[in-house]
Amino acid sequence: MSIENEELKTKDSELNFSENNSTKDSLIKSLHEHFLFKNVDQKFLESLANEMHIRLFNKKDNIIMKGEVGRALFFILKGEVSVISDDGENILNVMGEQQFFGEIGVLFSVPRTATCFASKKSIILTLTKENLKKLLENYPSVAQEIALIAEERFSSFVKSQDAEIKYEFSEELSLGISKDQIKNVS
Other C-beta atoms within 10 Å of 92: how many? Predict the structure, then answer.
């Protein structure tokens, strides 16, 4: 079970930024430096900070698991997060400070496309799907930027799945079954 599912059970390592002004000010400064939020006004950043929660992850803690329902978007404030292969043997990507993940499941309402874990002790900001939607209603440029990145990442994921289908069914393909026919088999 990932930490995302456990969020509903425990709030031990979580802090709501609306409760602590110095932490909130520090968060707003950090968010303003993020490439997604460089051109937004102070009011948006304050609203964003009020809706975010901080999660602390130790090295090797799972953050999200492939196949789970996406309920939140994650921003790496400090630390490092790795994306791993289905078998857990290979690291596919490593993300650091100022990067975000989890947007595919949140924006496209699809199960998580990968498992992500903390490569080292990390501080992760979480923003729920509902709060993200509410915040972005008045900021279409931020919504568009997040959607563009999500579309690129989702497209790469779909292409990688197509490559796996070609590989797994290479013998059948040589016997005259097309990729489209394979896709239609459920």
Answer: 13
Whole-structure pTM value: 0.69
Pairing of strands 72-84, 91-95: antiparallel
> What is the per-residue pLDDT across 41-65, written as a single tens digit (0 to 9) for each?
888 889 889 999 999 999 999 999 9
Closest CA to 74 of 90, 61, 92, 91: 61
**Bridge partners of residue 49, in order along the sequence:** none
Higher pLDDT: 51 or 179? It is 51
Q: Is the pLDDT of residue 30 over 80?
A: yes
**Partners of residue 56 on adjacent β-strands:** 123
What does the alpha-carbon distance between residue 30 and residue 25 come to, in Å, rounded to a whole number? 9
Nearest C-alpha neighbor of 160 from the set 110, 85, 90, 101: 85
